[in-house]
Each structure stands twice: as structure tokens, then as C-alpha cells.
Specification:
The chain is an alpha+beta fold. The chain has a domain of about 130 residues: phospholipid-binding protein (Arc Repressor Mutant, subunit A, Orthogonal Bundle), CATH 1.10.10. About 60% of the residues lie in helices and about 20% in strands. It has 6 helices and 5 strands, in the order αααααβββββα. The chain has a 5-stranded antiparallel beta sheet. Strand 4 and strand 5 form a beta hairpin. The radius of gyration is 18 Å and the shape is globular. About 25% of the residues are buried.
């Protein structure tokens, strides 16, 4: 039986992470998209930094940002020192969150809809679309992987089939070849600062 202290701490632990972050792949995406929709509806009042602050806990809970960093960097990851890897994860995570804060900067009646889920080896693909007023829906699919009992996003497929991380890897490879890890870290930090200036 749990101790009285454990029972008292449970509500605090629950507040630290969104409840949907420990649920099914579909529930993880639906929870994230609820936060994203709220940010869009309050986009102007929040401003770029306010949107980033609202999105950060939701993205850190539902996206496996360290794994996404490794995938985006590719083979060069294994050649980096631990301190460089840590700095790369921080820079990539900040940039990813700032990208969402910049992309979803207004609301015009859009809605999010999950259209299906299917297994991909041991992962799960959650298919969604962004419904837009008077326009064709935009398809965005999320690939989720079990990370210690928690389903988290490890890649996105824009227009249904274009891997976002494959596109990033192609771009990052050129930067790493020219200037190594420090050059890519500096580039990501610079991009993040520009996005959050609005």
C-alpha cells in the first residue's frame, strides 16, 4: 500500500507532465494538438516567446527530442564528444520548439483531426490532418516510438510522406562537413533567436 507521503506527492507529479503524455500514441498526438490549437487561438496575445513558453512543456513531453537530434545529425553523431552531443540536443530542441512557435502564429478557424493509426515495425504512425477553412486539408503524420513505456514522436511526415528529419539530415550534413558540430550548434542557436524575435 502506498505511504501517505507517496499519495500526497502524486498530484504534484501529475502536474509536472501532461496526463496524455503517458497514454496511447493517438492520445499523445491529440493532447499535443490541443495545446497547439490553444496557442494558435491566443497567438497574437502570446507573441513568439509566449508561444514558445506554452509549447515547450507539451513538446518535451510528446516529442523524443534527443532521439530526433540523433536522427537528424546522422552518422556524424557518433564522432561527437559527449559535451557536443549535449549542446546539440539543447540547440536542436530549442530550434524545433521555436519553429512551431513561429509556424503556428495565427488562427483562422483551423482544426486538427486524427485520421488513423497503424503499426510500423515496433513504432506507430498516427495520421492527422489540419483542416483549413476554404482550403484543402494539410496532412501531417507522426511516427511514435516507445521510450521507456511512453510513446513519443521521433519523426514527422509532411504532406503524408516527406520525412522532416531526412530533410534536416541532408541540410545538417553540409553544415557539419564545413564547420563541424560547433558550426551546426551556432547555426541552430542563431536561427532560434531569429524565430523568437518575431
Amino acid at each position: 500500500m502506498p505511504s501517505r507521503r507517496t499519495l500526497l506527492l502524486l498530484p504534484l507529479a501529475a502536474l509536472a507532465r501532461p496526463a496524455w503524455a503517458q497514454a496511447t500514441p493517438v492520445a499523445v498526438i491529440e493532447g499535443f494538438q490541443r495545446t497547439l490549437l490553444e496557442v494558435m487561438q491566443n497567438a497574437r496575445a502570446l507573441g513568439p516567446r509566449g508561444r514558445e513558453a506554452r509549447l515547450r512543456p507539451a513538446m518535451e513531453a510528446s516529442f523524443n527530442l534527443p532521439a530526433m537530434t540523433r536522427i537528424a545529425v546522422g552518422p556524424a553523431w557518433a564522432q561527437m564528444q559527449p559535451a557536443e552531443q549535449q549542446a546539440m540536443v539543447a540547440a536542436f530542441s530549442d530550434w524545433s520548439i521555436a519553429n512551431y512557435a513561429a509556424r503556428f502564429d495565427s488562427y483562422g478557424g483551423q482544426s486538427f483531426q486524427v485520421t488513423g493509426e497503424s503499426p510500423v515495425n515496433n513504432d506507430r504512425l498516427v495520421r492527422t490532418q489540419i483542416n483549413r477553412v476554404g482550403k484543402e486539408p494539410v496532412q501531417v503524420n507522426y511516427l511514435l516510438r516507445d521510450a521507456g513505456g511512453q510513446w513519443r514522436v521521433v519523426d514527422l511526415y509532411l504532406a503524408g510522406t516527406v520525412s522532416e528529419l531526412a530533410s534536416r539530415r541532408s541540410e545538417f550534413t553540409a553544415i557539419l562537413r564545413d564547420g563541424g558540430a560547433q558550426r551546426l550548434i551556432a547555426e541552430l542557436r542563431q536561427r532560434t533567436a531569429a524565430l523568437l524575435q518575431g
